[in-house]
């Protein structure tokens, strides 16, 4: 089965479980559930799936929160972009929401989510982009759901448009969506024996949840720590790249100040 077919199968299972076990709620919750499981990367996938299945909804909620706490500490450069996907996890939920989240996680694992992130497949997987497209198609006008480009189309487009590149060069996408063209470009770079982490990745989108997906996907795809994302309409802001770099610098400076303050308090 092709990677995009596997992603579609898992996305459909997540969508069905999320809506079968409750009503209402934003797309960020089921997308965040899938992202959490994808980022954990267990060495023993069957054992991990059994471990999750045995958890209570409450225990799973707090384990997910702990996992994201560690990820955010490690990738403060992406906090601004990915927060729309995970901020709900740091609220205190009612029991029905915890149960709904757990049921969605169980469905994702049963559908083979972990198989998508085997070492040989993870650079080609765009489960979160496919899932967001499925969720949006169910509830929104089709024109607002076009954040996902099928991998084969993105691969062909990039192969025809990306010329010679060298380390340190910026890859810029003003309508990045969930990062389909970033993924395809990273794949092409690897085929040319170049490390995607040596590049600067600059993307923007008016859909903040799609942009959050790009932020998380950048970790799956090994794009490195030079990922600069801007939420807004690039047609209305000609200097959006400069604004994005300044915003990133501001977030990193704040994170550094917080860490310094924590060290001082630890000594008191």
TrEMBL record:
Residues 137-240 form the DNA methylase adenine-specific domain. The keyword Transferase applies. InterPro entries: DNA_methylase_A-5 (IPR003356), SAM-dependent_MTases_sf (IPR029063). It comes from the Bacteria. Signal peptide: none annotated. GO terms for biological process: methylation. Keywords: Methyltransferase, Transferase. GO terms for molecular function: methyltransferase activity. It holds the Pfam family N6_Mtase. This is N-6 DNA methylase. It comes from Amycolatopsis ultiminotia.
């Amino acid at each position: 089965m092709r990677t995009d077919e596997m992603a579609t199968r898992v996305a459909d299972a997540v969508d069905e479980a999320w809506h079968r076990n409750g009503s209402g709620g934003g797309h960020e919750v089921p997308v965040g559930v899938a992202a959490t499981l994808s980022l954990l990367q267990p060495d023993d996938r069957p054992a991990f799936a059994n471990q999750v299945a045995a958890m209570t909804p409450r225990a799973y909620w707090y384990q997910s929160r702990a996992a994201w706490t560690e990820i955010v500490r490690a990738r403060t450069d992406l906090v601004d972009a990915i927060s729309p996907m995970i901020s709900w996890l740091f609220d205190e939920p009612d029991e029905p929401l915890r149960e709904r989240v757990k049921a969605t996680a169980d469905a994702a694992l049963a559908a083979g989510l972990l198989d998508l992130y085997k070492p040989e497949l993870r650079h080609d997987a765009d489960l979160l982009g496919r899932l967001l497209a499925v969720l949006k198609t169910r509830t929104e006008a089709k024109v607002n759901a076009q954040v996902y480009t099928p991998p084969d189309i993105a691969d062909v487009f990039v192969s025809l448009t990306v010329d010679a590149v060298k380390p340190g060069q910026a890859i810029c996408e003003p309508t990045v969506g969930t990062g389909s063209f970033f993924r395809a470009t990273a794949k092409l770079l690897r085929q040319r024996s170049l490390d995607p982490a040596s590049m600067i990745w600059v993307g923007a989108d008016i859909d903040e949840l799609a942009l959050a997906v790009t932020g998380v996907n950048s970790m799956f795809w090994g794009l490195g720590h030079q990922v600069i994302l801007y939420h807004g309409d690039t047609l209305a802001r000609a200097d959006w790249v400069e604004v994005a770099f300044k915003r990133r610098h501001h977030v990193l400076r704040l994170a550094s100040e917080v860490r310094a303050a924590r060290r001082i308090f630890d000594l008191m």
